[in-house]
């Protein structure tokens, strides 16, 4: 596997595990401190802390008990220290107002910092 593909696969795996554990802090861990996050409703959140708190809130409410699966669709190197990736996700929500299966596609911009590749920007889009 190409090194860039492996970097993104590792991050997608980390996000998936954190979501399935309903752990907002772990979900936000791969993000840069000043990361930008746009959710499927077009709401813009900024900072790792805001991403953690927002996700913990949905893990405790509308997405309680949900399970997500993520699959890397594409990775492109924009510069030696910048990667653009697209990841497909399938979310199964067991109960509540959002019960059912939902598909989304999210875009990630990763910017190398030393030996790490934190997420600088994340944009999630619901696929209908």
Structure description:
The structure is a single chain. By secondary structure, this protein is of the alpha+beta class. The protein is built from 3 helices and 6 strands, in the order H-H-E-E-H-E-E-E-E. It has helices at 3-20, 24-28, 48-59; strands at residues 31-38, 44-46, 67-79, 82-93, 100-111, 119-127. The protein is globular, with a radius of gyration of 14 Å.
Topology:
Elements: H1 3-20, H2 24-28, E1 31-38, E2 44-46, H3 48-59, E3 67-79, E4 82-93, E5 100-111, E6 119-127
Parallel strand pairs: 1-6
Antiparallel strand pairs: 1-2, 3-4, 4-5, 5-6
Side by side, the strands of the main sheet go 2-1-6-5-4-3
**N/C terminus separation:** 31 Å
Portion in strands: 35-45%
What percent of residues adopt helix (DSSP H or I)?
25-40%
- Give the uncertain stretches in residue-range form: none
H/E topology pattern: HHEEHEEEE
Shape: globular
Rg to the nearest angstrom? Answer: 14 Å
Number of helices: 3
Nearest-integer average pLDDT: 97
Number of strands: 6
| Secondary structure category | alpha+beta
Biggest sheet: strands, sense, closure? 6 strands, mixed
Keywords:
alpha+beta; 6 strands; six-stranded mixed β-sheet; 128 residues
Question: Can you give me a brief rundown of this structure?
Answer:
This protein is α+β, with helices and mostly antiparallel strands. It has helices at 3-20, 24-28, 48-59; strands at 31-38, 44-46, 67-79, 82-93, 100-111, 119-127. It contains 3 helices and 6 strands.
């Amino acid at each position: 596997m190409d090194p860039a593909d492996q970097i993104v696969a590792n991050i997608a795996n980390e996000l998936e595990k954190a979501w399935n554990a309903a752990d907002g802090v772990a979900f936000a861990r791969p993000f840069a401190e000043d990361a930008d996050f746009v959710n499927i409703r077009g709401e813009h959140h900024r900072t790792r802390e805001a991403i953690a708190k927002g996700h913990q809130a949905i893990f405790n409410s509308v997405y309680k008990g949900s399970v997500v699966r993520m699959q890397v669709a594409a990775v492109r190197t924009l510069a030696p220290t910048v990667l653009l990736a697209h990841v497909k996700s399938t979310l199964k929500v067991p109960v509540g107002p959002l019960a059912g299966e939902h598909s989304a596609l999210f875009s990630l911009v990763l910017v190398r910092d030393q030996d790490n590749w934190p997420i600088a920007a994340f944009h999630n889009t619901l696929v209908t």
